[in-house]
Amino acid sequence: MALAESSTSTQYFQGNVASGNARVQYGNVHHHYAERTELEQQQRTIKIRVDRARDVRDTINDTINWLAAPDASFTHHESYKKHEPGTGRWFLDGEKFSSWLTAASRILWLHGKAGCCKTTLCSMVIEHISRHLSGKQGIGFAYFYFSFRDVAKQSYQAWLLSTISQLLFATWKKADGIFKLLESRAAILNSRQEDDGPHPDILDWPVDKLDIAPVYDDLRAARARNHKHPKDLEFILHDLLSCKESAYLVLDGLDESPETGDLRKDVMEGLKKTVDEHEHVKMLITSRQESDIEVFMSQLCDSIVAIEVKPVNDDIMRYVNTEMERHQKLSSLDQSTKNDIKCTLAEKADGM
């Protein structure tokens, strides 16, 4: 009887062990399956994100090419090359520009006579703003140079095309960076084996928001219609600006948009509409003090700066001093001759 009971106990014990092993094995299989399923889910999710980033990036790139906007960067770089380091500080360090850049002032008009280096000063302003905004997210920035010499840079449509393209290019750079980041994450996930399981935090890594759905729809719709009419472009600009926490728009030489054919009138009405619809937009405009522009600016601006003769002459003399030291023939002149040259130039300069 004792032997029978022992045999029964042994069988019972072995049965429990077998059952336990089966449960452990089942648990391991279930855990492995769950990990494999989670890994596959991560791979599917990252693929969707990669495809979305690629689609946004390519759509923006195609739209920029379709817009074929006049190039503002060439004029900017050529103008900025003419500036003398240390000049223009009277404006850049001035209270009105500082208030416009960092405080409540929204619309600043900088005016002066022909030849007083407004365009060069504007290029310095653009560089200053660019440095100020470097690394900051959610802020739009674009600039434009109107030109007497280039009919492609005189109209409201030209300004819209250029401004939209610049804002889109900034978004394209962001989308391209995110696309490349997501591609690298996808490569990491796809290289993992089933036994590795899911990546612990790959989908938690921060990814900038790429949801620009309203802009995205308008871009495709405008391209589908192949329309670049200002009304179509206004919708796109409106959506782009609405995606920003704030935006800085700089326009040089408004007076170089001709009055003929209502070109300048259309520009001014369009600028006012942009300002009225977007309270977070700041605008800096340079021009000569022409009567129609003065009337327009008196209604639009909350800050006006006139370029006066003295600060411009001071900048000119700074440039002259630098050139005299830079060139061997001039630097070798005696001090009396140098002073005569400076006095003559100062008298003739008259802020130009």
UniProtKB/TrEMBL annotation:
Residues 86-185, 227-288 form the Nephrocystin 3-like N-terminal domain. Transmembrane segments: none annotated. Keywords: Repeat. Pfam families: NPHP3_N (PF24883). Gene3D superfamilies: P-loop containing nucleotide triphosphate hydrolases (3.40.50.300). The keyword Repeat applies. It comes from the Eukaryota. This is Nephrocystin 3-like N-terminal domain-containing protein. It comes from Pseudocercospora fijiensis (strain CIRAD86). The lineage of its organism: Eukaryota, Fungi, Dikarya, Ascomycota, Pezizomycotina.
